[in-house]
Amino acid sequence: MSKLSEALQSGKFVITSEIGPPKGVNIGKYLHEAETYFRDRISAVNVTDLQSAVMRLGSLVVCHLLKERGLEPVFQMVCRDRNRLALQSDLLSAAVLGIENVLCLTGDHTTLGDHPDAKPVFDLDSVQLLTAAKRLEEGFDLAGKPLDGVPKFFLGAVVTPGADPLEPQIMKMEKKVRVGAQFFQTQAVFEVDKFIDFMEKVKNLKVPVLAGIVVLKSVGMARYMNNNVSGVYIPEEIIEKLKENPEKTKSGEVGVEIAANLIRQLKPHCQGIHLMPLGWDDKVPAILDAAGL
After folding, report:
1. What is the pLDDT of residues 56-115, one digit of tens each?
2. CB 112 within 8 A of CB 170
3. Which one of 59, 124, 147, 227 counts the least CB within 10 Å of its CB?
4. What is the CATH architecture of 3-159?
5. What is the pTM of this model?
6. Cis peptide before 21 (omega within 30 of 0)
7. Cα separation, 212 vs 209, whole angstroms
8. Under DSSP, is residue 214 helix (H, G, I), strand (E, B) or coil?
């Protein structure tokens, strides 16, 4: 059983965070930051998989390096870049490396990234990827062929609690639970009331939900997210906070304060938080301290 699975099953409030691998092979800084800022403070570290369709070092090797250092990795997998052969093969590779936590995502389209002419694959979607992983656990591949040795995973998925309309998100979440999702990490949450309403509607699923917390770096970033990130809305009062003291916003003090305040409000309504520092890994301890975690 993975450490993340144990933590969630114990019923305690769980904290996860994430790192984005570099565009290149200089991984030392990223591993050092993960060890310095995440160890003893969080239960698991997600490793993003070519986030925003930008070519980077792969998630699987970084998960392996984190595991070697005693950190608990979550292997993010997107369906954009690999067909069902490669996806199943990478799942088996992860299992051989002792990586059990897998977060299954469909992935952003290639046109959004730094290789817009790349051909997207999308042979499977996130629901089908969860199905494939579950099938491997049962000893068979998607073609029904038996495996020589069976992997064991702790499978996760994502959901957007601020989506409008919300019903399609809930329907997809139900489908993901049916095919094997054992925990959820959400898209960034800034509207606490909407999140509470969402949690009320999905409580019957009895599956752990970790609320997503993005650390805001600037007014521009907040405006960009409002205009471009589906299902995420940053209220005007939060944007006003970012405007009040430009120096404190630039240094990250305001972002830390906003994140900690959101965590305190969300904590009674979910089983954990997933912190997305977007390169500000060094702010994670301050956020957790300010939130009383």
Report:
1. 999 999 999 999 999 999 999 999 999 999 999 999 999 999 999 999 999 989 999 899
2. no
3. 227
4. Alpha-Beta Barrel (3.20)
5. 0.95
6. no
7. 9
8. strand
